[in-house]
Structure formats: structure tokens, C-alpha cells
Amino acid sequence: AVVGRLVGVVARRGVIALGGRYLGWLASARKADIERTLPGAARYLHALSSGADGPRAMLRKVAENDAYGETAVAARKVLNTAALTGSLDEGLRRVARDTPSRDTLAPFLLKFREHSEQGGDALANYLGLEARMLGHQRSQAQRRNEGFLELVAELFVVLLVMPALLVVVLTVMSVLAPGLSAPLPTPLGSITQRAALIYGAAGFVLLVGAGAAATVGHLRPTERQVTYSRPEGAIATLRSAPTNPASAALVLAPLALVGIGAGHLARIHPLGSLLAGYVAWGIPVGAVAVRRARIDDAKDREIQEFVHAVSGHVGLGRPFGEAVELVAEDVDLGPLQGDVASLAFDLSLSDSPAGTDRRTAALSRFVDRVGTPLAAQTMGLVTGALDAGSDTESVFETLQTEVGQLYHEKKALRSDLAVYVGVGWVTALLVVAIVLAVDLYVLDGFSQLSAMPGSAGFALDPNAIQPERERFRFAVVAVATSIAAGWFAGMASRGPYDALLHSSLLAGLTAAVFAGVGLA
């Protein structure tokens, strides 16, 4: 009974502790998402403030936009509370009281409430000022993340180099410590302690690479991350493979089997066959991702020109649809030309009682066709603002500023992260150079030393070092390091598909170098 009571108390406290920790994690995640999405929501509200919508309708448009994440959730809570209490002020006050974002969202909601009572002009001025201030705070947070990323990169380099040095030390020590060659029983057969440590070091390197890559992905602003999805249907997937990495990953999957099969026919080690399959699949899929990224970059550059050209026509008093049609006819927008022409055609169909809904659908299809985060962030602002009856010229003035700022931030982020791409490659090449130097200039000497008769006080193991076996193990660690470094470099470059490309290139290069000098 006493034991059962003790177990019950421990279980109860454990559940409470885990529940509290989970709720803490949930609150932290919500707070981080609010801090990420609130600046964009504030800019959206500022664009809406020039229209005929009141504060409640403005918040409803934010609540309906999933791009604003937890900020949209908070707006929905405000509206639900307002519906129950009959007062928008009460809804704003309660959500400001309960939100985990005490330093950001809470004061924003309270000031929104205060300025909405003072009139539309006061609210518009406040939202413009607050949007700039929140954007500045977001930039500071990104700089802090960059500082943290520097520490991650330094730790990453140390953790990747150390296993290679450990393998060298273990190889040297095996001459003087025969116990390292003692077999260890495992469910799959026996293995020596040294082999277990060496292959464990290779596994550790891969875990470090995966962890570092995940950290880099977490530190990248979510709104700058591009995700690709396969279209429905086998034919559509096949057609999109040259420009869609998600489709290419599926369509080119047989290349991995071809690589593995070729390795098996060449009678190389199973690990070598797996590496051949990984490289044969990863490089072409990564190449598709790079091609798509270049197309997206070109589209983002042309979006600035598109917005500027449309703004000029709108400033002359032309309707939005007519302005887009003139731009599609008169301006060369490169890879964006077809998307703009389709938008102009879709907008020409919106002259009907359901025109507003069709215009929204046309802009939504345009964003989907362009497929870049920059297009989603900027054109989403146009959709809501025009539906709210906002002044078109004012909307496009705001949009010009927005698209210029977002494009500048994108270029600055890519420039900052390019350093870490170099860190990944240099680290991999450094480890490969260390391993090659040991293979070529040290290993044979220790092999000869182990073959010498033991002297007084020393018992040398003549079989401790077998050059062919040690070179294979060194190659395994070097390739694992190259893959891990490639994951890190690729995530710093653009994301998961670039990580696949960089790791495949580095792994293939490492294997080719070892084969070229006759060590694998």
C-alpha cells in the first residue's frame, strides 16, 4: 500500500510537471509566432485603415488571414469575446490580459483600442508608426539570431573536427593498447571496441550535422522559407518535375536504386552502395531546387518592377484591373510575364456583381502561380485593402515601400547566411585533408611499428593496424563529416533541398578524392 501510494504521488507530480512544461513550451511557441507575424499584421491593418472598414472589420480581415499565424488567432479571440460581451473594447482588453506576448501584442491591442476611440485618422497614424516600430524590433531580433548562429557555427566546427581526430588517436592507441581490439558481442555479431567507437563517431557526426541544420532552419525567418508541394496526379507531378523539387524528389527516386544497384554490381561495400544511391539522387534533385530558386529570385526582382508600374497607372486614376492589363502589355517582366498576363485576364472577368470576390480569387491565383513568400506577403496586402474599399493609390504607395523593404531584407539575409555556407564547405574539406594526410603519411608507419616485436614493458599487437581496413574506416568518417557539413551549408543557403544538394556534392567529392588517390 505504501509503495502504491508513493508511486501514485510520484506519477501525479510527474504528470503535473510534464503538463506545466508542455504548457510553457506552448506559450513560448505562441509568443514567438506572434512576434514574427505581428509586424506584417500591423502593416496590413495600416493599409486597411485608409478604407471604409471600422476597427472590428479590420480585425476580422486579419483573423481570416492564416498567414498571420498566432496574431490571427488572437484577432479571432478578440472578435469572439466582443461577440459575447457586446463590446470590442472588452475583447481587446481581455486578450491583451491573457496573451503570452506581454511585451508586444498586449500593448499593441491596448493602444489599438485607445486610438480607435479617437477616430480613424488617429488609428491610421498609430498603425503606421507601430508598423515601423515593430519592423525595427523584428530586425533587431534577427540580428540577435545571427549572433546566436555564429556560436552555433563555431560549436559545429569543433564537433565535426573532433571525431576525425578521435579516430586518428584511437588508431594510434590501438598499437599500444591491444584491449581496444577486444571483441564486443552484439545481436548482429561481434565487433571490436575500436570499430564501435569509430562507427559511433561517424553516427555522432551525422547527428551533429542534423542538429546544426535544424537549428539553422529554426533561426531562419519563417516568412523567408519556401516550401514546395507536389501537384495532384501522376502526369502533373511528372510535368512539374523540372521546376518543382518536391516532384523531382519523387520522379528521380529510381536514380537512388540505380546508384545502389551499380555499387552492388561493382562489388563495393554496402555503405559505398548506399552513398552512390544518395549522391545519384541528391545531386539532380538539388539541381532542380537551384533552378527553381533562380526562377523565384528573378520573379521577386520583377515583382518590384510590376508594383512600381501598376502604382504609376493607379496614380493617374486608372482602375486596378486596367492598370494591370496595361502593365502586362507594355512592360517586359521576364519570368513574371506569364503570371501577370494571367492576372490581367482574370481581373477582366471581375466586372460583375461578384467582382470583388473574383478579384480576390484572381489575386490569390496570382500568388499561387508566382509561388514565392515575397509575392504572398505583398499581394495579400492588396487583396484585403482593396476589398475594404481602401484608396487604391494609398494602397500601392504602401505596397511599394513594403515590397522594397522585403526584397532588401531577403537579399541581406542571403548575404549574411552565405558565410555559413562557406563554413560548412571549409570544415568538410579540412577534415578530408586531415584524414588524407594521416592515410598517406602516418598510417603505414604505425603499421610497421605494430609489426615490430614488443620490447620490455610493451606488448604490441601486430594486427592492430591493417592499412586497408583503417583507410576504409577513415573514409567512412570523412564521408559522414562531408554529409553533415553539407546539411549545415545547404540549410544556411536556402533550405532542405539545398542541404540535399550540398551534402551530395561534398560526399561525392570526398569519395572521388579517396578513390582517386587509391585509398578507397
UniProtKB/TrEMBL annotation:
Keyword Transmembrane attached: yes
Membrane-spanning intervals of the chain: 148-176, 196-216, 246-265, 271-290, 417-443, 472-492, 499-519
This protein's GO CC annotations: plasma membrane
Protein name in UniProt: Type II secretion system F family protein
Membrane topology listed for this record: Multi-pass membrane protein
InterPro entries, per database record: ArlJ-like, T2SS_GspF_dom
Pfam short name (any one): T2SSF
UniProt entry keywords in alphabetical sequence: Cell membrane, Membrane, Transmembrane, Transmembrane helix
Span of domain Type II secretion system protein GspF: 43-170
UniProt main location, coarse: membrane
Compartment(s): Cell membrane
